[in-house]
Amino acid sequence: MSKILTDIRPVLDHTSCEHVQLLGKWVWGGTGEAVAPTPLLITLIKNGGVLLAAYLPDGPYELDGMVGFVFGFPAHEKDTDGQTVAKHCSHQLAVLPKFRRKGLGLQLKLAQRDAVISQGMTDRITWTFDPLQRVNAIFNFESLGVTSQTYINNAYGNLDDDLNIGLTTDRVQVDWDLTSPRVLRAIAKQKQDTISHKNLYILSEPKTDKDCNVHIPTDEKYVTLAVPLPNKIDNRAKSEQANLSLWRQFLGSALRSAFDKGYTLSGCQELPNIGHHYILIADSKP
After folding, report:
1. What kind of architecture, by CATH, is found in domain 1-120?
2. pLDDT in tens, 251-265
């Protein structure tokens, strides 16, 4: 991956918001409704929302050089004690296909991190992603240092964009604790703790629907759990729908069961000779 320096700046005007919408349509397809309408974007960014766009000299002229954006807004939720706590909800990150694998997504997320810290309201960001998307999983867990203990069934209902049409929108919600040692190691490009295979339980890939009722061991000798991911799957290919559905059921069952038993999802790594797996640790602390 070749990294390039880019101009990242806040989106503050109507025209730039329209560029964000068009960029989203180019990335996600469908009817173009994936991105919020301009009046809502303007209202959010004038009231604590953070909408940042990346620009390059060779970016599309229709977008004034915009090649990507990241968008989020202040939010809150209940903690484990039932207390209301502030957070920042990151809603979308998009980079045009031509400009991917150049470090732009990472630059946008780090700029978002700086903006949220500067607001002084919270040092935590959450967002959701499709657990079937291995590239996103690696980016989230290995490059940013997020963790997760939350699986959401059909989070957004039926969507008509090219990546989601015909599928349930199951999502994993991740937690980005912006100043934690784990996150600081990740953004400094330091590797996280090495997986111990001594106490590792590796789940098998699903072959039929019967494999989607996953049993997570409760034996105390298993400290680390490895859940397989599919090889690259094309969401847009109708021929992949049955395979996608099978993996969706499997990952949903495995991750929900693991979270219920106290595991924390903290990695997406390639295990020797058996491909990429989600790595979950029992009673992990970020």
Report:
1. 3-Layer(aba) Sandwich (3.40)
2. 999 999 999 999 999
